[in-house]
Amino acid sequence: MSYVSKKILKSRKKKRLEKIKKFLNGAKSSAEVKKLVELDWQKAEYFGVGKRDFVNFLTFFSNEE
Q1: DSSP label at 16?
Q2: By the 8 A CB rule, do 26 and 34 touch?
Q3: 18 is in which domain, residue-wise?
Q4: What is the predicted pLDDT for the residue at 56?
Q5: C-alpha torsion sign, points 23, 27, 30, 34
Q6: What is the rounded CA–CA span in Å between residue 65 and residue 39?
Q7: 1-55 pLDDT tens trace
Q8: Structurally, how many domains does the chain consist of?
Q9: Distance CA 25, CA 58 (A)
Q10: Of 10, 14, 25, nearest to 57 (Cα)?
Q11: Within-domain flag for 30
Q12: Does some domain include residue 36?
């Protein structure tokens, strides 16, 4: 694997990890994570999103509001 490929993969990994951390919003326990996932499911049901559809809820429901 070339140096450039490794740098690209590392950058992508970093971005994915940042998105996950943003979604978890500082959750410390598995109960808090389960609550976040249930909330995400409720939002998906509300918008009628099925298993085949992809909606990036981090852009719609950020905690920065």
Answers
A1: H
A2: no
A3: 3-60
A4: 63
A5: negative
A6: 17
A7: 799 999 999 999 999 999 888 888 888 898 998 888 888 888 877 777 666 666 5
A8: 1
A9: 11
A10: 25
A11: yes
A12: yes
- Reduced to 3 states (helix: H, G, I; strand: E, B; else coil), residue 65 is coil
Dist. CA 39–CA 20, nearest whole Å: 15
What gap in Å lies between CA 8 and CA 3, rounded to an integer? 9
> So what's the pLDDT on residue 65?
44
Query: What angle, 0 to 180 degrees and rounded to 10, lies between the N-to-C axes of helices 3-24 and 30-47?
Result: 90
Instruction: For Cα atoms 50, 65, 43, give the angle at the middle one, nearest 5 degrees.
Output: 15
Residue 65 lies in a domain: no
What's the rounded Cα separation, in Å, for the pair 65 and 62?
7
Residue 17 lies in a domain: yes
Question: Is 26 strand, coil or helix?
Answer: coil
